[in-house]
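Why should sequence recovery work at all? Because a backbone constrains its sequence more than one might expect. Tight turns favour small or flexible residues, buried strands favour hydrophobic ones, and helices have their own preferences. The token representation captures these environments compactly. In the example below, the structure is given first.
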């Protein structure tokens, strides 16, 4: 099952000649989720081969234009493409009002429904759940109500050890019970613990998206163990005073959050336009957290499956 993140935008505040505002697509088992929708997001999706009709939901972190202005043209384009299935959109209030105004004035006959789901930016809460995935909110610290998002796989079905099937001559019914996590009772009355019969095929994977935020140990705790963690790094550390005043983080602070969360890899983005080359920010982050990488537009980061062994 695939678990990938494609970067569509890495700029803060305004687009530049080579950077677009914040947007990413998370691909879990060929189901696409758009995370933030800065200006030009639909063009970036076309550019990098992502079919917008495959979007299952949209998650908006907060109501600043560089994270939102691309949503409304995308809604219109999906209608022109003939989308028929509802589009869930998650985000802080009053996003629902903005969507209602857009639909009233620009898309009164949209062939599908846009379903707004309010996000309480003060709570860590389950927002979306399906057979294989959960999406949780992560409260962040910014100038306006802001939420990060945690995409986490559910526990995979257990596998039954082939050698145990042969050793105990397990029937199909007993194999099925073992896969459900149950102990198995044999014909001779012995009960075999489930842990002896089964193993977890891989560890559930997780991606944490920590958008605009100042230093937040709470967010690090809620993103604990993420295989891949995105954290804004708007400024270098010598600009930390400005970062605090504006509700943002430095590259070093982003790395410290990744370290505190015990993440496996860190992506940094949301670069201020003052940095023509983000390598200085990546270098700073790597002094604290070596597995730090730039959120380069068009690049896809794959989270591979890992076994428990």
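From this structural description, the recovered sequence reads:
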């Amino acid at each position: 099952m695939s678990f990938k993140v494609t970067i569509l935008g890495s700029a803060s505040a305004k687009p530049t000649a080579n950077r677009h505002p914040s947007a990413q697509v998370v691909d879990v088992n060929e189901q696409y989720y758009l995370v933030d929708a800065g200006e030009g997001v639909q063009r970036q999706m076309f550019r990098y081969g992502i079919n917008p009709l495959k979007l299952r939901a949209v998650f908006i972190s907060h109501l600043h234009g560089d994270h939102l202005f691309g949503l409304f043209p995308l809604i219109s384009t999906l209608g022109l493409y003939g989308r028929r299935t509802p589009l869930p959109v998650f985000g802080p209030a009053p996003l629902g009002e903005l969507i209602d105004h857009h639909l009233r004035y620009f898309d009164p006959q949209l062939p599908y429904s846009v379903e707004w789901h309010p996000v309480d930016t003060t709570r860590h809460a389950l927002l979306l759940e399906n057979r294989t995935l959960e999406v949780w909110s992560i409260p962040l610290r910014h100038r306006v109500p802001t939420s990060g998002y945690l995409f986490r796989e559910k526990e995979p079905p257990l596998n039954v050890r082939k050698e145990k099937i042969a050793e105990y001559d397990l029937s199909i019914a007993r194999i099925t019970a073992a896969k459900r996590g149950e102990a198995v009772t044999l014909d001779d009355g012995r009960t075999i613990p489930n842990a002896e019969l089964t193993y977890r095929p891989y560890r559930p994977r997780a991606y944490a998206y920590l958008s605009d935020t100042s230093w937040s140990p709470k967010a690090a705790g809620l993103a604990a163990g993420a295989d891949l963690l995105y954290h804004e790094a708007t400024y270098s550390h010598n600009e930390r005073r400005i970062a605090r005043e504006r509700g943002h983080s430095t590259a070093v602070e982003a790395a410290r959050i990744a370290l505190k969360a015990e993440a496996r890899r860190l992506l940094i983005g949301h670069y201020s336009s003052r940095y023509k080359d983000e390598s200085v920010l990546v270098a700073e982050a790597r002094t604290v957290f070596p597995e730090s990488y730039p959120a380069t537009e068009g690049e896809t980061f794959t989270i591979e499956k890992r076994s428990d062994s």
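A few observations help interpret the result. The longest strand covers residues 3-9.
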